[in-house]
Every structure is written in structure tokens, then in C-alpha cells.
């Protein structure tokens, strides 16, 4: 896995396709943190060619980026902002990268609401997923491994 890979967003067309094919064949995944529009990995193109891509949150309250807060919904919002996501599909892609990309890189199971899925989820008010990515509503409940870890925006001890 390679984090950041800030040179990859400079590639396009055949050069990007060739690199993506090499990465996919070698099983090398990439991560991004959505730092700025010109440094975000072209995650849709990479994933379409079989490259595993994740979205992370580093720079949590440090000098590289004091705006990090380790909130992956917020990171999906920032990814949408930096990539100029406008459509429901684009905003949903940003959420999916935040929700599933990292787990895929770590070979962890995808979280769904089906029996047997990891009991990791959050409850919040929203009309649809794209609206949630845009508005960042407060999390009413956060559950990790079947245990309530936060409620009404407060971490539980």
C-alpha cells in the first residue's frame, strides 16, 4: 500500500491506465486524504482498473493539517469538496471510498446491514446518502463491534 502518491494525480489517459494496470496486477493499493484538488488520487479511474483505493484521515490536529479530525464522514465531505462532486453518484462514490476503501485495503469485511456483517454503524438523520455527505448531520448513535461507543455526539466511556 502506498499513501498519498501525490504524483499519480498528475497522470492521465494512457499513462494513468498503464500505471493502474501495473498496480492492480502487483496488488498494490493506494490511499488518499483529499488534501487539495490537485493532489487527490483519481480514485474512480483507478478503481475501474482494479486498483484498491482507500480514503484516510491523517494530519489530525498537527502542523501538516490541523483540520483533520479522524471523522470519516467529514473526510468523505472533504473528498467531495476537493473533487467538485456535484451529482448523487459522485457524492455516493466519496462516501463509499470513506466507508469501504480502507477496509478493502486491509482485507476486512465490508459492512452491510445483512446478518453476519460486522456490527459497525452510525445512525443519523438524513433524506439520502448524498445529502448526508453534504450536510454532515450529527451522529445520534455510533456502534462499533456491536457496542454503543457514542450517543448524541458524545463519546461514551
Automatic annotation (TrEMBL):
Positions in coiled-coil regions: none
Domain Amidohydrolase: 12-149
Residues making up the signal peptide according to the UniProt record: none
UniProt xrefs under PANTHER family: BLL3847 PROTEIN, CYTOSINE DEAMINASE
Protein name: Amidohydrolase 3 domain-containing protein
Source species: Kitasatospora putterlickiae
